[in-house]
Amino acid sequence: MRVVQNPAKLQTALARLKRQDKKIGFVPTMGYLHEGHLSLVRLARKENDVVVASIFVNPLQFGPREDFKRYPRDFPRDARLLKKEKADFLLAPAAEEFYPKDFQTEVKVTRLSGRLCGASRPAHFAGVCTVVLKLLNIVKPDRLYLGQKDYQQVQVIGQMIKDLGFSVMIRMAPIVREPDGLAMSSRNVLLSKKEREEAPCLHRALCEGARLVKRGVRDAGGLQKPMREILKRAASARVDYLEIVDVRTLRPVVKLKKGQKALLTGAVFFKKTRLIDNELVRV
Ligand code: AMP
Q: What is the mean pLDDT of the chain?
């Protein structure tokens, strides 16, 4: 595996491989890798000739009072894990070079970015889109690997790719979980012992919602109430949002219809640490 800091160097190396008609799979991450990230790398490895991963804690997607400084980092360990998974390139740009002082461009997907996470993190998705577009421009992959855990992110990036006419294919991989159901996240290490014990309640609440849908409950209120009850029992949990939304528009669904696909999705603060999770359901 080749670790590259300079995007231009990566482009030179990739151009040569593209001339040989090699297919490129790209896995963007913010590092502090876990099995969720590695599942994306494995899928990319299976489906492509060349695998590029990136590690970049993107300052643009953090709000002023969010956890950019606290965000966990361990580059040597990440590099070892990626090498073990046989990634070919690891792009790890330096923030000052990636965003020089006069950087002033912002990429914004309007409506989708305002919902769910975007409602409580107003600048988040513009930061995500800006970094992803810049990375796509460098790597020009055939396939882009994203996790269902960040479902809204997948939809927003998909919209951007469609609107701007990129030809990259998005591959969304399922959520990888800890044995107790908690969705793996780099942020899980920020939880205290007690918060970590309580954190699986988010997944439990979403599963309860999915179970009730299977049992025939159709109205959002009837689903949300018992889900919230589960979260209330966790003393360290404070709900940011807990919604049932359309899988495409991400708009709230009031009453589920037969055949409809919906997303049960939530964001919960465990004291200072905000975790997200979701379950896809089909009525
Ligand atoms: P991050 O480093 O948090 O920006 O995540 C990088 C990529 O890994 C994103 O596409 C995430 O959706 C994906 N990802 C994060 N956690 C998980 C997980 N538990 N299961 C599957 N994919 C994940």
A: 98
- Which amino acid type is present at position 187? R
205-229, pLDDT tens digit by residue?
999 999 999 999 999 999 999 999 9
- Ligand 1 pocket check for 152: Cβ under 6 Å: no
pTM for the structure as a whole = 0.98
Pick among 3.40.50.620, 3.50.40.10, 3.40.50.970, 3.40.50.300: CATH of 2-173: 3.40.50.620
Whether 36 is in the pocket of ligand 1, judged by its Cβ within 6 Å, is yes
Ligand 1 geometric centre to CA of 120 (Å): 20
Say whether 37 is catalytic: yes
Report how far apart, in Å, the C-alpha atoms of 25 and of each of 148, 163, 259, 263 are: 17, 21, 33, 27
Q: Which residue's CA is the nearest one to ligand 1's atom 10? A: 146
